[in-house]
Amino acid sequence: MCGRFVLFTSELLEHVGELPGVEEVHAPDGVPGPRYNIAPTMMVPIVRVQESLAQVDPGRWGLLPHWKKDLDGPPLFNARGETVASKPSFRDAYQGKNGGGRCVIPMDGYYEWHEKVPHFVSRPDGKLMWVAGLWATGLDRLSGTMVTTEALEPMDWLHHRLPRFLTEEEMRPWLEGDMDESLLQPTPKELREMFEVREVDKAVGNVRNDYPELIG
């Protein structure tokens, strides 16, 4: 699963512009500032693509389906890849119906706890990590969630779930609504083997802490 992540790059729009097939990037409402301890219900950048145009919008991390009447209940910040096509909370967004659809959510890394010890996961080459996501517009506001799948080696020791990170080749099919079931399978091995994991300070457990030193 993924319940905390980090996004601090100052060149987010440039990175979005490098996604496959993207020729133009719009961010009409700006992008959230750098954060080192993003938690559910906070605002995150939601990246949607239509043909050659990418749009980046701030949205609530925690999906609000079109039928949601209030903010009661736990935030839907993760969606299991095994049931995302059938579960009512995520089905419409997965299928691109009722004011919802596919997106990607960028991160510089994320936190995971193993035996109550926090760890930071990132790419040692410094490149952004792109997670398959879903967006919706329930309660007249943009919101999103991250798709997760089973964690496989070499990441399974850390947690049994892993965000569904996309390869460059998978990015476009996912964003265009391709129903290929392989897109809901675990993160490809070529990406899993790139990840670097290191233990970090327990201060990250408090969402009020938000500073660069958290990632070590």
Automatic annotation (TrEMBL):
<keyword id="KW-0645">Protease</keyword>
<keyword id="KW-0238">DNA-binding</keyword>
<dbReference type="InterPro" id="IPR003738">
    <property type="entry name" value="SRAP"/>
</dbReference>
<keyword id="KW-0190">Covalent protein-DNA linkage</keyword>
<dbReference type="InterPro" id="IPR036590">
    <property type="entry name" value="SRAP-like"/>
</dbReference>
<keyword id="KW-0227">DNA damage</keyword>
<keyword id="KW-0456">Lyase</keyword>
<dbReference type="Pfam" id="PF02586">
    <property type="entry name" value="SRAP"/>
</dbReference>
<dbReference type="GO" id="GO:0003697">
    <property type="term" value="F:single-stranded DNA binding"/>
</dbReference>
<protein>
    <recommendedName>
        <fullName>Abasic site processing protein</fullName>
        <ecNumber>3.4.-.-</ecNumber>
    </recommendedName>
</protein>
<dbReference type="GO" id="GO:0006508">
    <property type="term" value="P:proteolysis"/>
</dbReference>
<keyword id="KW-0378">Hydrolase</keyword>
<dbReference type="GO" id="GO:0016829">
    <property type="term" value="F:lyase activity"/>
</dbReference>
<dbReference type="GO" id="GO:0008233">
    <property type="term" value="F:peptidase activity"/>
</dbReference>
<comment type="similarity">
    <text>Belongs to the SOS response-associated peptidase family.</text>
</comment>
<dbReference type="GO" id="GO:0106300">
    <property type="term" value="P:protein-DNA covalent cross-linking repair"/>
</dbReference>
